[in-house]
Amino acid sequence: MSFPYDIRLPWGTIPIHLVFELLAYAIGFRLYLRARRRAPSELTTEQAVWILVGCLAGAWLGSKLVAWLELPTLYWRFRAEPLVWLQGKSIVGGLLGGWVGVEVAKTLTGVRQATGDAYVVPLIVGMAIGRLGCFFTGLPDGTCGIATSLPWGVDFGDGLRRHPTQLYEIAYLVLLGLALEHHPSRPAPAGARFRWFLLGYLAFRFVVEFIKPRPFLYPFGLTGIQTVALMGMAAAAVSLWRQPHRAQATPTVAVEGGSPRG
């Protein structure tokens, strides 16, 4: 196999990453709509639309911000070229930015219902599909690992056998999805599943970044992604800790005609 493994047609070449990215968006959105139909919801159509807008806007902004934080010297070098600043994105930033965007939209539209759980399966499936595109793109994608002597190392075209970190992430996402599907004997509060997903994924990204060729520019010898992942894990953990306290307030909120926010 030669990288990048683009699709070559008589009239041109289609980047393989674009193909898998479009598949990820299409399949993920389809799964999200199915999850929304199955889950009981008090949202109006207008509220649901604004929450989706907040999610998409926050995800885009977050993905760009973390990409800039990861390689600040590179982007500064091309500060006079706006097109360069529009390139690059981060899944970690997209997840956290989307979470913030949803919470802002919910606050502005008066929604107190937890909505995050419906995103878990679509995110896992979409991210796994997208990582296949990263793998087949090879070195230009910038997601390959450092050199390794392990037998499953992959030569992405530079003569070095590298950690296929994209495949590691796909395998981890599958395991994480299976773990989250295992329901405890006592139902978890609404919204807890999404926060556990965030904790699990961000923990993986914090660890796997150590075997990627990244600049460790931040305190304690961390990368930008690792620093943001730690902050995201802390936010998710605090949010999980607060949920039991919200649950205790449910009877009072119910009398007032509301529902607990998660």
Automatic annotation (TrEMBL):
InterPro entries: Lgt. One of its GO terms (molecular function) is glycosyltransferase activity. The keyword Nucleotidyltransferase does not apply. Its EC number is 2.4.99.-. The chain crosses the membrane at residues 12-33, 45-63, 83-102, 217-241. Keywords: Cell membrane, Glycosyltransferase, Membrane, Transferase, Transmembrane, Transmembrane helix. Coiled coil: none annotated. Belongs to the Lgt family. This is Prolipoprotein diacylglyceryl transferase. It comes from Chloracidobacterium validum. The lineage of its organism: Bacteria, Pseudomonadati, Acidobacteriota, Terriglobia, Terriglobales.
